[in-house]
Structures are given as structure tokens and as C-alpha cells.
Amino acid sequence: MKLWGGRFDKETDTLVDDFNSSIGFDARMYREDIAGSIAHATMLGEQGIISPQEAAQIVDGLRGILADIEAGKVAFSVDNEDIHMNIESLLTERIGAAGKRLHTGRSRNDQVALDFRMYVREEAGKLISLLLDLERVLLRRARENLTTVMPGYTHLQRAQPVTFAHHLMAYANMFRRDITRLEDCLERLDECPLGAGALAGSTHPLNRARTAELLGFARPTDNSLDSVSDRDFAIELLSACSILMMHLSRFSEEIILWCSWEFQFITLDDAYSTGSSIMPQKKNPDVAELVRGKTGRVYGSLVTLLTVMKGIPLAYNKDMQEDKECVFDAIDTVKMCLPVFTAMIDTMTVRAENMARAASGGFINATDCADYLAKKGVPFRDAYTITGRLVNHCIAQGRALDELSLDELREMSPVFDEDVYDAISLHTCVSQRKTVGGPAQEEVARQIDRIAAFVEERGKDA
After folding, report:
1. How many other β-carbons are positioned within 10 Å of the β-carbon of residue 180?
2. Once rounded to an integer, what is the mean pLDDT over residues 183-193?
3. ∠ CA(261), CA(265), CA(269), 5° rounding?
4. Active-site residue (options: 242, 276, 277, 425)
5. Closest-CA residue to 27 (of 60, 61, 74, 63)
């Protein structure tokens, strides 16, 4: 007889047991389930709802079950459906009647809401830690490349010169936002649903503030209906993970381009590349490609949970059992991607000479030429047109702007003088872009220091 079988005259069909069971995937929440039950039993004893002796028996029994699970001595049963009923059944087998008192003032609805929140809380912290590791690598590589000039692109066309450090810090800022999104998620889930019961609380004198305190939450949730039916915290996590994977995917795409023969801006370490079964010359960026591919998998998890939740009335519905596998898979995927991606960035070789060579072509100093004229008093739109004609002239002759003689320049505008060559040199183009957020060395160094302080502050909390 199942723990909930009192109202039923016969057992459920085995097909229903298999269909209904979630132990195959929610077993991973055993630590959270046991921690929640220990807090609940402790509170029940303190409130006099069960005797202190029974509470102590329950707590000792649960700790013994935890030790046995960790030691691989426990086999969970499909008949008991989920991790909650498996542990409760084990407890009753071990300590007898006292075990039957554990569920007093509690429902599986608030129990699973608690376990899932605690699991997400734990895993979000791990994701933040992995992101901090990536940030540390980006900071180191950026410091190494403060003067490594490369083309910046728009529309995948060479646009203006930047440095490799500046480019890396763009991603460091994205990942900083990813960390703060996860922190925001943690802040909002910092409420304990235990004690909300099935949907309407309990007639027992539960101390919800006490269980929240015991489990490390800031406060209990405020509405019992919302407590058991809310999965916003999981959707927020999946949203944050999806945005994070989008950032990894964009970075991966650039890595794939940069290590191609067409670019040759970087060389990936052999340990983070693969070969071809037929083409001996190949060195493939499979790590980056897999990260790019797995991004769609995480997106799918977000869409899954949004779709599950979109038509569910209050309060709990069995549909919500579908909340966990997508979250578990997304977390597992991100946790798999981040360390290997970080190691790939850490070990890659930067081909600074190829970046500089690319930066010297493509007229990426054209804007600086127009700015030079504007600073001499030429209206910018006129300066833009003059420079565009110069570029067209250079393309026809297969030359660069800085290869034109001063007489040729003055044919387009008498404003040009000898100082134009310094103004449109790559060094000047980069070093004079000192506005906040720009690629000038001292400005990128400031960006590095800002992210480094952010990482250090969170490292102290880890």
C-alpha cells in the first residue's frame, strides 16, 4: 500500500506507476529532501507538535539514511514514486512509528517546492563560481594583450582598430552580467515554502520562520498558494543560463573564425582541438562548436518550462513534475561547457602579428581620417564624403590611406597636412580612443581593474 493509498481500494496499474514515478530523476535531490525533513522535524519538536524524543529519533534516522545514500547502500524504489516518499518509507522502516509523524503539517507540494528551491540555490552558486573562473582567465589574457592591435568588426567587415584586450573585456562584461543575473535569481528565491502545505497552510502551530532560518532562507514565502505553485525561480535560472550560453556561443563563433586559416588570429591548444578521420591536415575547434550547439539545448529547457507553466491554474498540478528534468539538464549542460571553454581560452595562442597585419588593411583608419578633418574645422558630413572618395581612390589603386602622398590628399581637401599620417596611424587610432569604454590602453586597464574588483569581491564570499 502506498503512503497515500488510504482512499483507494486497489493498487495502481504498473504502467501508471512507471508513468507517474519521478524517482529516476529527482533522486539527485536527496540531500535537499533530507535537509528539509530534518528542519521540519526539528521545528515540530520545538513547537510541541511531536515530542522532542520523536523529533530526535527522526533526525538521527534521516542522518543515517543520508550516510547510507552517500555510501551507495540505498536502492530507491519506483513503487515509492519520488525521492520524498522513498526517504519517508526508509525512515519508517528504520525507526518505526516515529517516522510516520514526520509528515505532520507538511505536504509533498511544499516539500518538493522546498527541495527544488534548495537545489537551484546550490547549483546557481556553482555556476557563479565557474563563471568567476572564466573571468579570471579573461582578465589574465586581457592583461597580456593590452597593446595587441586587431580589427574591430561590424557586419563581419573590418571597421575600426581595437585591441585583443578590449575585445576580451567585452565578453568579460557579458559574463559579469551573467553573474549578477544569477545573483538576482538567488535573491528572489531566498524564501522558504515549507509550511505552505498542499496549498492552504496547516492547522498545526507551525513556526515557518524557524524552518526558514534552519534552512538558510531569509524568510518564509508570503502566500501558501503561490508557495507551492511558483516555479519562477527555476524559469529565472533557465533564462539566466540561456543568456549565458548565448554569450558563450557568440564567443565560440569568434573562436571558430579566429582559428581558421582565413583569419589565423589564434591557435587552439592541441588538447582542446580534434582531428579528422580522413583529412590529416585538419585541426577542428570542436569544443567551441559543441558549446555553440549545446546552447540550443539550454534554450529548449527554458521553452519547456515556460510551456509547462503557461496554462496551469493554482495551485499544484502534476504537470509540474515536468519542471525538473529540463532544469537538471540545463544546469548539467552549462556546468559541462564552462570549465572546458575556460580551459580552451586559457591555453590558446594569440597570433598578434596576424591580428596587426589584418588591422593594417581594410581602411579601418577611415573614421580617424574623417575625424582629423573635422578637428580641422571641416563639417563632419563633408569630412565623411572626402574620406569616402579617398577610400574609393585607394581601392582603385590597391593602396592604403597612409600610402597616399600629401599632394594626393590635398587634391581632395587643402586641410590635410603632414600631421595626418600620425593621426591615422593604427597606434594613434587606438591610443587616442580614451573615452570611457574605449580601446586605449589605459582605458582597457581601467576596465580590467573594475572586473577584477568585481571578481575579487565575489571570491571572498565563495
Report:
1. 14
2. 98
3. 85
4. 276
5. 74
pLDDT at 71: 97
Give the confidence band of 274 by pLDDT, cuts at 50, 70, 90: very high
pLDDT at 227 over 50: yes
User: Could you report the per-residue pLDDT of 29-40, keeping only the tens digit for each?
Assistant: 999 999 999 999
276 labelled catalytic: yes
Which entry of 155, 167, 202, 277 is annotated as an active-site residue?
155
- pLDDT (tens digit, 9 = 90+) per residue, 405-452? 999 999 999 999 999 999 999 999 999 999 999 999 999 999 999 999
62-78 in b/e form (b: 16+ CB < 10 A) is beebbeebeeeebebee
**In this prediction, what percent of the chain has a pLDDT beyond 70?**
95
Task: Give the per-residue SS3 of the chain.
Answer: CCCCHHHCCCCCCHHHHHHHCCHHHHHHHHHHHHHHHHHHHHHHHHCCCCCHHHHHHHHHHHHHHHHHHHCCCCCCCHHHCCHHHHHHHHHHHHHHHHHHHCCCCCCHHHHHHHHHHHHHHHHHHHHHHHHHHHHHHHHHHHHHCCCCEEEEEECCEEEEEEEHHHHHHHHHHHHHHHHHHHHHHHHHCCEECCCCCCCCCCCCCCCHHHHHHHCCCCEECCCHHHHHHCCHHHHHHHHHHHHHHHHHHHHHHHHHHHCCCCCCCEECCHHHCECCCCCCCCCECHHHHHHHHHHHHHHHHHHHHHHHHCCCCCCCCHHHHHHHHHHHHHHHHHHHHHHHHHHHHHHCEECHHHHHHHHCCCCCCHHHHHHHHHHCCCCHHHHHHHHHHHHHHHHHHCCCHHHCCHHHHHHHCCCCCCCHHHHCCHHHHHHCCCCCCCCCHHHHHHHHHHHHHHHHHHHHHC
Q: What is the pLDDT of residue 461?
A: 61
Query: pLDDT tens, 8-19?
Result: 556 765 666 666
Q: What is the pLDDT of residue 336?
A: 98
Active site residue 155: yes
